[in-house]
Design goal:
CATH class: Alpha Beta
Distance between the termini: 95 Å
Strand content: 5-15%
Shape: elongated
Helix content: 40-55%
Order of helices and strands: HEEHH
Largest sheet: 2 strands, antiparallel
Number of strands: 2
CATH architecture: 3-Layer(aba) Sandwich
Number of helices: 3
Structural class: mainly alpha
Strand order of the largest sheet: 1-2
Number of domains: 1
CATH topology: His-Me finger endonuclease fold
């Protein structure tokens, strides 16, 4: 196996990805106000590196020039969005399974207890 060729291919792929990211990030920062689309935190040039471009359909190669697949999110909201996607893929039913439905009836006999005459001395 020619490791030099493999190293070159990987290096070129990384450079192409970085260039593509610079292009859509720069465009997104021109199109949208510098605030997080979820928590509405505002950004300035001093902390702009904490504002990320999120792909709404999660396809980093789909970058229409009108920005319709992007939203600006802070690092925390962006991580949260991807974590929600991971959790949703692990449980496609949305958390409602037969095992999760409770069958216990803790107040079943409450009415009878309330209607009993009191035994005060």
């Amino acid at each position: 196996m020619d490791t030099n060729k493999l190293d070159r291919v990987v290096r070129e792929a990384r450079l192409a990805r970085e260039e593509r990211e610079r292009d859509y990030r720069a465009l997104a920062l021109k199109l949208y106000p510098w605030l997080c689309g979820r928590c509405t935190r505002e950004f300035t040039r001093a902390n702009l590196q904490e504002l990320t471009v999120h792909h709404r359909n999660h396809d980093h190669d789909y970058n229409p020039p009108d920005g319709s697949n992007w939203e600006l999110l802070c690092l925390y909201c962006h991580d949260n969005e991807h974590q929600r996607l991971i959790e949703a893929s692990r449980n496609p039913t949305g958390g409602t399974t037969a095992a999760a439905v409770g069958t216990d009836r803790p107040f079943a006999g409450l009415a009878g207890l309330l209607l009993k005459p009191s035994r005060e001395p």
